[in-house]
Amino acid sequence: MTGVEQIKVLDGEAGMRLDRWFKSHFPGLGFGHLQKLLRSGQVRVDGGRAKSDTRIEPGQLIRVPPLDVDRKGEGAPTARSIRGQDDGEVLARMLLHEDERVFVFNKPAGLAVQGGSGVSRHVDDMLEAWRNKRGEKPRLVHRLDRDTSGVLVVARTRLAAMKLAEAFRARDTSKVYWALVRGVPGKRRDKISTWLIKEATPDGDRVRVARHGEKGADHAVSHYRVVEQAAQALAWLEMEPYTGRTHQLRVHAAHIGCPIIGDPKYFEADTNWEFPGGMQNRLHLHARRIVIPHPDGGVIDVTAPMPPHMRQSWSLLGFEEQSAGEDG
Predict the structure, then answer these.
(1) What local confidence, expressed as pLDDT, does residue 120 receive?
(2) What is the dihedral of CA 127, 145, 182, 217, to 10 degrees?
């Protein structure tokens, strides 16, 4: 972090001790370092000096000097790293963007968005911790697969939820995903257009490519481009779903013969293929960026840092994040 920041206390942080607030927002900041910053007056609450046990309230501004540690969403939390922490702290660590209408979180891989079979903790339930003073609970407006990490938009009010949900239905949003796949597609960029159908199996829901006109099938369209590749073995794809079907990008990647690395449902390795050494056998799919109309006008444009297991793979392959050229 560079430069002094003034960070606003959230509704869900009411009554939190200042040292716990720093632990949730800057998990890499040591207790001793924080004490020095407090004693020297570099950390302030609403302009006044504070102590580690100072209780903070929503709307207060916390002055944070330059720190050599990651801030909340920048630290790319993992499902394992958030065990044992209360829901409010976990949400604060995941937070990438906030305003009066919208939260945007960086969901860790392995954390479910909603409840289901075998799910003990999920974002929808955790949002109870951030009910506002009127009793309103933040509302989900879209979903990510449990093992997919990245940007998750949540509405803070009922009206904001209606407007954001309509933007998703009208396809006024732009969603960019990063994936690491086996092999390299034949075309550097292309559109994938198929019909998909979801079926229940003993291992949970599974989606397959269907025939046009098959009962229960939905049309699905995705775009992709190859950003970088490691010989002919692996490729970094930037993928954009035009439609929003269940498991769409995972099925489409497999459909073109380049399944996503670590996908437990759709990756079928041939007998000659070996999982790359040093990589974690986890789904390499990340919701990198979302651009969506703001309920009050303008746009929300948020980018999420990659999860640790994907950063590790990018490092092993020598891929540079700047190669994606996201500025446009």
Answers:
(1) 79
(2) -160
Question: Catalytic residue positions?
Answer: 145
CATH code (residue 230)? 3.30.2350.10
- For every residue of 83-135, DSSP letters joined together read TTS-HHHHHHHHEEEE-SSEEEEEEPTT-BSS--TT-S-BHHHHGGGG--TT-
Phi/psi at 20 (5° precision): -70, -35
Q: What is the DSSP pairing of strand 299-303 with strand 174-182?
A: unpaired
- 105 forms bridges with which residues in the sheet? 95, 152
Choose one of 286, 304, 319: the last residue of a domain. 286
Of 208, 225, 227, 226, the residue nearest 217 (C-alpha): 208
Range of the domain at 213: 176-286
The pLDDT averaged over each successive group of 10 residues in the chain (328 residues) is 76 83 80 89 93 91 83 62 73 89 94 82 91 88 95 95 94 95 96 95 88 92 97 96 94 97 87 81 96 94 94 93 67
Per the listing, tokens 């009922």 go with 158
Q: What is the CATH number of the domain that holds 38?
A: 3.10.290.10
pTM of structure: 0.77
Sign, CA torsion 22/26/32/36: negative
Distance CA(257)–CA(250), nearest Å, equals: 11
